[in-house]
């Protein structure tokens, strides 16, 4: 699965950094692997959160992780393995965006294509047409649900004497997930994209 890319835009500064750190912490609680992409005009401080941080600075591109500076190959693997990439880079129109609104700020992206949500402690209009979150935990839950929607679901086909059995989607999903859980520990199933079970009487 490719990572979902979200642009966290709006007024920067320490308020945004604190919100980003809180958001990454809440996403980690939801077992999401998060990477952060940010512009870095000067010397880069230690990364504040996430699986990895991609920085585009005057000296080129660097990738760091909170646990220390890995090799470039290690950092690229961490970034590629992310479920969600939070970008602080200027977004293009139509890209997924969340605008951060600190106290006293007015949202400026209303009606802009790709705006997913508004977040922050600021006085945000109650009905801007997009979800509004005053805490990082709420936004984390919203983003987690969007990532889940993008996740590929297992499909199940049940044939009885060669004829498909009709069943509702959620019933098929429950059966498929249950069978996968039972069979996953068996040798030979790791990495398999298709499992076939034949029961004969």
How does this structure look, described?
The protein is an alpha/beta fold and 201 residues long. The chain folds into 2 domains: 4-150, P-loop containing nucleotide triphosphate hydrolases (Rossmann fold); 154-201, no CATH class. The chain is built from 4 helices and 10 strands. The chain is elongated. 28% of the residues are buried.
Give a concise summary.
By secondary structure, this protein is an alpha/beta fold.
Structural features:
single chain; 201 residues; alpha/beta; Rossmann fold; 2 domains; two-stranded antiparallel ribbon; 27% helix
Q: Sum up the overall morphology in one term.
A: elongated
CATH topology of the largest domain: Rossmann fold
CATH homologous superfamily name of the largest domain? Answer: P-loop containing nucleotide triphosphate hydrolases
Calculate Rg over CA atoms.
21 Å
Task: Give the topology.
Layout: E1 4-10, H1 14-29, E2 34-40, E3 52-57, E4 60-64, H2 72-80, E5 84-87, E6 97-100, E7 115-119, E8 132-133, H3 136-150, E9 159-160, E10 163-164, H4 169-183
Parallel strand pairs: 1-5, 1-6, 2-3, 2-5, 6-7, 7-8
Antiparallel strand pairs: 3-4, 9-10
